[in-house]
Each structure stands twice: as structure tokens, then as C-alpha cells.
Structures
1.
Amino acid sequence: MGLKIDSKKALDAAKEKARQRMENETIRILICAGTGCVASGSLDIAAALKEATKDIKAEVTFIEDGCKSIAVKTSGCHGFCAMGPLVRIEPLGVLYTKVTVDDVEEIVETTIKKGEIIERLAYKHPVSGEIYPIEKEIPFYKNQTRIGLMNCGVIDPEDLEEYLARDGYQAIAKALTMSQQEVVDIIKASGLRGRGGGGFPTGLKWQFALDEEREQKYVICNGDEGDPGAFMDRSIMEGDPHKVIEGLMIAGYATGADTGYIYVRAEYPLAVKRLKKAISDAQAYGLLGENILGTDFSFKVIIKEGAGAFVCGEETALMASIEGERGMPRPKPPFPAQRGLWGCPTTINNVETLANVPNIILKGADWFRKLGTENSPGTKTFAITGDVANTGLIEVPMGLTLREVIYDVGGGIKDNKKFKAVQIGGPSGGCLTEEHLDLTLDFDSLSQVGAMIGSGGLVVMDEDTCIVEVARFFMEFTQNESCGKCVLCREGTKRMLEILQRIVDGKGELKDIEKLEDIASAVKDGSLCGLGKTAPNPVLTTLKYFRDEYIAHVVDKKCPAGICEALKVYGINADKCKGCSKCSRVCPVGAISGEIKKPFILDTEKCIKCGACVEACPFDAVEVV
Ligand SMILES: Cc1cc2nc3c(=O)[nH]c(=O)nc-3n(C[C@H](O)[C@H](O)[C@H](O)COP(=O)(O)O)c2cc1C
């Protein structure tokens, strides 16, 4: 370190040096050090691999002219979280899954020294049973297109030089040769829309801020990411922090801001650590600070750690939080571009939005428009979770169908179960059904069916899911997270949750469904901020597409999926029962009777649905009927 990059020429020289260093690394072993893999011990694997490879440079037999150097690197998230800890070996392109420290010796002896594959560590397709040792051939990866995630899992996020080798800071260098308006025009022409949920055109947002004639302006990167199950932004910040900083710098230059804030929740310690390191390294190289690359542009980046409230992701609440106030939203207008942080024009963009910017500047608007759809160009990252074979972080072109995402990338439904629904867009999103599987994933087509891409949460559910319980779960989340400032959100979400709870408790009435709809539309129309405005979405979409399930709960007092405890009716399957009496012995209310070696009988009137008999039965004979 210590090298100052104070001109485009110096940047190119640093890139060339970094590129040569990486070229020398004839073997690169990348160990995933995203939060998930770190939690499953990937750092110990990295340490063991470093130790085991330190003296073997010349012994490698599969590279013709011998091995110059072996680089053992920790990287950002590879995305395939369910299969972690992950280890990728280049140039073979091999990906090993569920690796342990005990596998290290075999990896070194077999794959590193001889270039041979260890089949047992390769990914095995859960449905076809096919083995895929090469990463890019695994269906999970094969169907993805990566822009925001292009460096995640590929470079060491704590090594600025690796970012430089992959065109790092070239986009800001190019932007600085253009006028601010030219930069805004490229982003406008690219059609990039905000990835934080709303899908607002980024170029237009930048134009509003550029048009404001004020001395002091700010840019903010929104890394709050409070949606349950979502970790797209976290992975980008952890896996490619310099890309986020570079995107923020470009936004700062284009709009006339000299200061950028990155708002990250404190529950993301690894993201905070890597961003801090990236900022201090960029400062040390002169890539942040005064007169960047020898121009008049000066820019600093400040990290603000949030305390982890969902509402703090809302832009006006986020700014209040940075100002040291309680994170509560305020009415718009004025919009942040006019009156933002400390009353100054402010541009707020999501992490993924900003991560797209450097590539658009370098490769052009047309390149970006070639991906995705007419009105939603580019790609989108999703956190795909739930009852799907391959869970993790993915990036696909906009316009892929839900079916392609769930079955081709996600590998289909786990355990040969039937697909039931997909909840898309997190707590503000909607629940879609089998009839929507051929719907394309883009901002407009989803909003037409009452759902939204949101920030990219995608929860796949199988036939054993109770849709009313899903709606109750999301309502509980938004109700807990309501800041309480406006009555409709504070009281409305509470009443909706009470009704949903009543329904899953088996105490709902038909008129509750009507009441739920009435309150939902009032909360949607009258809430102050997006939290309340979108909180009813999961309820409204499930009422629209799964109304019969609500009816079954309130009229028939049945939970079709057999999930809601209060509505479960247990019975004993006479074909499976061996008459061992274990069930009747544990029943606390004497609801089970029978003769030894003959099928027992359960009295549903007496049964208190405690489930003790289910646990006690060795033959799975007690069933929900
Ligand atoms: C309750 C609520 C939570 C939000 N959380 C986030 C978030 O975590 N990250 C984010 O980028 N945007 C979030 N948003 C959207 C932001 O207010 C804002 O629209 C976004 O950061 C703008 O960036 P973009 O145009 O690049 O999407 C949230 C909005 C609401 C109403």
C-alpha cells in the first residue's frame, strides 16, 4: 500500500500491476466468506487450505508449465448458501460444496496437485441425482446473469487490487471526463430503475438532484435491507464493497454531492467491516478524498450504522435516523431530491442500484438495455428461500418467468411436493399461485397482479403451507415494525393482525373476511409511508387468490394444509395402527382407547390437539384428518 493513484494513467498502471499479479496465480482457491459460509466454518477451511498449499507450488501436474503461485482467497458470497461452505478452484472451474476442514487434505492432493475431481464434494442435483463438479454447469448458476454480483465470490473483497484488476474505479475515471449532465443522461438512457423496491427511474431521480441549485448536496446508499429473508444487499456490500463505493461516487459526481453516506444496519457486522476497510483503502490510494484522479472532484464516504428497524429503510425515516432523530417517516413532498439530509438536496439509492452503475458507465446504456425487458432493463438479484431445492442468492435477467426461476435456477420443489404459492417482494409483496408461474418477473407485470418485485425476497411454498398463516406471519412483522406515527398504520395493522390471529385460532367468522378487506384498503390508501401503504399486500393477494382457504378456516373450521394447530383434527389410521397403546398412555385427557393388537380409536370431541400421541406413535398412525 502507499501507492497514490492520482491520475487516470496511475489508475491504469495499478490495474496492469494487479492484473499481472493475478495472472501469476495459476491456481486460485476461493473460499466463500459470506455470512452464511463463515457461520458454517469457512474461515477454518481457508486457514487449513492456506497451510496445506504453502509449499506445493512446483508440484502441480495439471498445469503444463508448472504452477507459478497458488492464491488461497476468501471471497464474498457465492450465492449457493444451502450448499455451503463452498470452495471454488480456478482455472478448473470446480465448485466443492459442504466442505469441511477434514476434506482439505484430499482437495490438495487430488484436485490441486493432480487436477482430478472429488465427486463426493461436487453438487448433486436433488431431483435428477446428476453430479455437477463444474460451477458454471450447475443449473443454479447456468441460468443466471450477473452484473451486481459479478465480483461476489470471484474476488477477495478486502483486496482493493483485485477490484482494480477487474476494471475497478475505471467507471468513475470515465465519468469524470464527462459533464454531470452526460453521466445523468447515460443512466437515464439505460432505463435503470431503483432496485430498493419502488422501481423509480434512477436517471430521473439524479436529474432532480442535479437541477437543484444548492451548494451542499448529499448522496445516500440505502443498505438497510430489513425484509425478512432478504440478503441481496448484504451480500453485495460484503462481497464487492468497492463497487458500492464507486457507484455512490458516480452518483455524487453526477448530482453535485461531495459527501456520501452508506446506511447499513448494525446486524450486518461483516458488511460494515468490509465497507470500512474498503473506504480506508480507497482513501489510502487517493481514490476517495480531495481531487480524485487529479480532477476537481472531491468526495468522502461516511458509514452510518442503523439499529435495525424496518421503517428506517424508508428514505425519509432513514434521513431522520442519520440526523440523529428517531427513524420516522415524514410526508412527501418535499422529496429528498429537494429537501433531504439536513434540508439539502439528497439522492438516495439502493445498494444494488448503485452496484449496477459502474458497469453502465463503462459499457454503455445500450449494453444494459440488451438485458431484461423494455420497461425493466437489466437483471435483478433475489434471495430465493422456502420449499425449493436450491436456496440462496441469485441474479437473473428481468423478464424470466417465475417458473424458470423456481424450477431452472431453484431446482424445483423439495421432496417431490407440489408447488402451492410464491411470496414475492417481502412483507410488502404479494402471494402468487400456480396460475402465475408463467408471469414474467419485471416491475410492471408483477404490480398488475397485486405483487411487486420489492427488494427481491422470493419465498417458495409447497402444498403443506397454510396461506392464512403466511398472511398472519407477514402482518405480524409489519405490525411490529410500524413506527406508530400515523393512526391507520398503527391501529389498522393491529386490527388486521387480530382478525388473522382469530382465523388461524379457529375463532373467525365470515364477516371477519369482509372486515379484513375493509381495513386493508383503508390502511393501503391512508398510511403515511410505504410501510403502511404496502402492509396489506400479502393479505389482499391471499384473499384474492386463496379465498377458499380463508372460507375453509372460518366456515368449515378446517385448515386445508393441516397446519393451524387449533383447527387440526387428529384421527388414527387403522391400517397403520398396530395396537401398541403408546398413544393412549400419553394422552392427557383419555381421548384414545382400544384393545392391544387392534386399531385404537381417537375421540375427536375429547381431543385437545396437544399432539402427544403423534410424537408417541412409532408407526406414524396418528394423522391430521
Ligand atoms: C418500509 C420501507 C422500507 C424500505 N426499506 C428499504 C431498504 O431496506 N433498502 C432500500 O434500498 N430501500 C428501501 N425502501 C425504499 C426506499 O424508501 C427508497 O425508495 C430506495 O432506497 C430508493 O432507492 P432506489 O431508487 O435505488 O430503489 C423502503 C421503503 C419502505 C416504505
2.
Amino acid sequence: MERADVAIIGGGLIGCATAWRLAQAGASVALFEAGELNAGASGQNAGSLHFQIERRFLEGSESLTGEAACIVALSRLAVEDWRGIEDALGVDLHVSMRGGLMVAETAGEVALLERKAAVEAQQGLSVETLDGDAARSIAPYLSPAILAANFSRDEGHSDPRILTPALAAAAQAAGATVRSRTRVERITREQGRFTLQGEGWTLAADRTLVAAGAWSAGVSALANLHMPLYPVPLMMNATARTAPIVPHLIQHVGRRLSLKQTHSGNLLIGGGWPSRLAQAPGGGFDLSRPAELLPASLAGNLRAAVDVVPRVARLDLIRSWTGVTAVSADQLPIVGEVPRMPGMWVAAGGSAFTLGLTFARLLAESMAGKVAPELAVVSPARFEHLNGFMG
Ligand SMILES: Cc1cc2nc3c(=O)[nH]c(=O)nc-3n(C[C@H](O)[C@H](O)[C@H](O)COP(=O)(O)OP(=O)(O)OC[C@H]3O[C@@H](n4cnc5c(N)ncnc54)[C@H](O)[C@@H]3O)c2cc1C
């Protein structure tokens, strides 16, 4: 039987980055991907590097904003991880960190920006609050309707099509085994060690990491664990290429919008508009089929883009697509060891294009015994009660 120190389930950004970090540190690693590497959310996302507190955290109660403030500590680490990643991998990932503006169009949204910036300042994240004219002085492409913006100098974007394949290659160069088209179908645990099985193969591992994105609840169930992670179907749009107009990442504090210009000149427009998951016969969702694009989301997303950056109205839309990400029951990521099953680790949920490199580094350090206090807020321990009856 094959053996590894760590078995990783999922060949997206988190799985490949963790494989790389662990292999670099000398661990033997075997990564299994059911389909093709980077074919999940990691290859379909918007590529935003957003370090400001996300709009979705500002919609709810004060306590949710408080939890989001804890994410700021992780975001600050992510700024440094992103600044170093191209040199560390020796690959041009089209990383652009020329700043990001989160804009407001109403007086209520301006107040929300101010509340957000105060929380961020408390957590040591530097964000400037600009009035509309000051925002347009650095971003002249913004609409006159923009009343204010929070500006974070570190925000930006990178190319999701390049990052994960580069991480997988680096993991392999460091000695990890990476197998695509290899689904993990069974996980058993005896005397503290794991046995993973799929069609025609078996592997024994001291530790297992579930990094299966939207599929993580189902994969955790293979180990008889509840993990409250839910598939969330989103959509993205790309315009035709155009001359450089938007050097920044643009987000909106009150509407669903993210907008940026890629290295090739396309504008990528997203921001959390829903698509629709396919239904499985007999109940539940069928994640093997692509989510369906919704015309109302398409119209709403483009409306928000044109309202904020009027030039968008003159560009042709060339492509829209859907992708499915994972969100946990409390919206925070779930990253760490499962207390009731030592050796079983989970990393999924949240905005893991921005935070995935940081999760991977902290996971590798934690597995080596180093305490990572930044992971405390996202530990699976907060959902331990769900597994109390799982035997
Ligand atoms: C449309 C969209 C836009 C987004 N925009 C942003 C953004 O701008 N910024 C940001 O920070 N985040 C963004 N996100 C979120 C981000 O993409 C995800 O958080 C991140 O990519 C998750 O990476 P992952 O490795 O956890 O999961 P994934 O990339 O989904 O990888 C999980 C992998 O596990 C594999 N798998 C599942 N079951 C098994 C099994 N049994 N055996 C083996 N393999 C298995 C799957 O095939 C899949 O390849 C966006 C997401 C979407 C969908």
C-alpha cells in the first residue's frame, strides 16, 4: 500500500498551495483531484485580491462585522503572501497590486464606508476614506454619481488561470505526488491513521486535508463528519479587450460589484451575483452539472458596472460563466484540524483566492506543530457540536 505523511483531497488553489508548502518543508504529500486541476472555483473566479472587509459582512448584524474584523488579520498576512508569490514560484502570475476602491453612491453607503474603515483601522489595516472628487482624482473613470470611496493601496488582482497550475508544478518539483482524474471515494481511520481509497488505489496517510471547495461537506461525510459548508453558485462576465482604463480593483459597498482590467485588457465584472445550482433527483444539489446563468443576475451585474464605470457601456460583452464556491454556516472560512478527529484537517469556504496562499502557509506551519493564532477564528472547533452525535 502507498503511504504519505499527508493526503490532500482537492486540486484547487488551497490543495495545491498546501501541497507545495508541505513538500517544501520535507513532508511526503499525495494530492488527489477528482477532475482536472483548477477546474473548480479556483479557475473560475474573479481573481480579486480584496483586503477590505467584504460587503456581504456589512449587510448583517454588528456581531458579523466583528467576526469580519478578525478576517482582517488574515488579510494583512495575505498582502505579504501575495507580494512574495511571483518570486517564490518564479512565475509571472499577472499580479497587479495598484490599489482598490470600494465605492458608495448614497449617503447611507457613505456612512457604511466610514463604519467599515473604523473597524479596519482598529485591526491595523490602512484604508483611506476619500470623497467623490478625491476618488475621481485617482480613478477618473469613475461615475460622477460616486459620493465616496475607501481606498486600500494593497488591493488588486491576479490571474486565476495561472496560479493553481503554477502551485501544482511547484508542489511536484518539491516532491509531492499530484494526481488528477483520481476521486477519493472512501476514507477510514484506524488507530489514528487514515486510509483513502478510490477506483483501483489505496493510500495510507498520517493526516488528511479536505480542500474540496464546494464539495467539502460531501468529502467530510466520507469520514463521518458534518462540515457546514454549502455550495454557492455565482457568475462572472468578461468584456472585449480594450486599452488600459482601470488600473484598480473596484468594489461597491452597497451593491454586488467587482470590476478590474486584466493583463490582456478585458474588463472582468462580477461581485457575487447568483447563478442557479442543478437539482439532484430525490433532493439536494447536483454539483456534477454546471450552474445555470440567470438573466436577472446578468442584467443586474452589468447595470451596477455601468453605473460605477460608465465606459463599460461602450464595451462588448464576450463571455459570461458560472462557478460554485463554498460558504460556511457563519460565512467565515473553516480552516484547521477537526478536534474530535485528530489528523483530519479541513480548509474551505470564504474568499480563498485572496486568502488561500495564507491558509496554505499557516496550515503547513500548524501541521509542523507551530501555533498559528490567526487560524483560531476560523477553526472547525466552532462547529464541533454538530459532530457530537456522529459516533
Ligand atoms: C464566480 C466566482 C468568483 C469568485 N471570486 C473571487 C475573488 O475575486 N476573490 C476571492 O478571494 N475569491 C473568489 N472566489 C472564491 C474562490 O474562488 C474560492 O474560495 C477558491 O477558489 C476555493 O479554492 P479551493 O481550492 O478551496 O476549491 P476549488 O478550487 O473548488 O477546488 C476543489 C477541488 O476539489 C475537487 N474534489 C471534490 N471532491 C473530490 C474528491 N472526492 N476527490 C478528489 N477531489 C475532489 C474538485 O474537483 C475541485 O477541483 C470566487 C468564486 C467564484 C465561484
